[in-house]
Amino acid sequence: MSGLEALLLGVVQGLTEFLPISSSGHLILVPWLQDYTFLENNADFNKTFDVALHAGTLVAAIGYFRHEVVRFTAGALRALRRRRIEGTDERIAVAIAVGTVPAVLAGGVGESFIEDHLGQPWLISILLIVFGVVLFWADSLPQRRSMESLRLSDGLYIGLAQVLALAPGTSRSGITITMGRYLGLDRDSAARVSFLFLIPVVTGATVYKAINALGEGLPHGVAGPMLIGTAAAAISGYLAIAWLLRLVRTHSYRPFVIYRVAAGIACLLIIATGLRDATF
């Protein structure tokens, strides 16, 4: 893997992790479109590189929301110590904890099924379109609530929605923003809640996969590209968060809906014309 290839994939990961267009789907589709097979032919390294890219986006999320992370971590510890919830910070912190459970359980139980049966280009293309349309519908609903009104039941619903994001093409940020808008959150709050819910899930997944990857070793000469990819994911991810939050204060999520539908149709046309295979 060259440094330029690692840079490209790092930027793709950073942007698409936080924009509601599916990072896992793009990390499959971009090499597929380029007919780039290094990651496909080096499955063990592919998993390790995926850990590195997610570590980069995790740094971006924690860096951007550092004050909220401190507030809600302290709130969770207070609620745990007293065994009851008092105040907004504690309620939001516990809602995030509740929402983390479904994705962790589903990811742990269904990891092998996801790797074996999901992630084919044709399916990713369809999911981009379907969940783009669902986002359009949810975003047309009234904006009635802010993040401070988040309830424990909201946390559970958003957590259950995160389970769908295990399928590449759905988008973790996209489906949680969709659920947030369905629950009446305003666009800014839906995005912030989505990113805060991402932090514990991605932290757990990154640590778990990193432990598994440590014993597999790295192919020769990939340490540099991995560092490049991680840094690119962190920087582009931070910029993506800042840009999206600024955008949705005055605009809807429609640009992402248009992109998802257009990208999905384009990939299906590429498959239909035989330029690329529908499966690996």
Shape: globular
Low-confidence stretches: none
Structural class of the secondary structure composition?
A: mainly alpha
Largest sheet: none
How many whole angstroms does the radius of gyration measure?
A: 18 Å
Considering DSSP H and I runs of 4 or more, what fraction of the residues is helical?
A: over 70%
How do the SSEs run, as a string of H and E?
HHHHHHHHHHHH
Count of helical regions: 12
Mean pLDDT: 91
According to DSSP, the number of beta strands is 0
End-to-end CA span: 20 Å
Percent range for β-strand residues: under 5%
Name the features.
single chain; mainly alpha; 0% strand; 280 residues; globular
Topology:
Layout: H1 3-18, H2 23-34, H3 38-41, H4 43-64, H5 66-82, H6 88-117, H7 121-139, H8 152-164, H9 172-182, H10 187-214, H11 223-248, H12 254-272
Explain what this protein looks like in three dimensions.
The protein is an all-alpha fold. The chain is built from 12 helices and no strands. Helix 1 (3-18) runs antiparallel to helix 2 (23-34), helix 7 (121-139) runs parallel beside helix 9 (172-182) and helix 10 (187-214) packs antiparallel against helix 11. The longest helix is centred in the middle third of the chain and has 30 residues, at 88-117. The chain is globular, with a radius of gyration of 18 Å. It starts with a helix and ends in an 8-residue tail after the last helix.
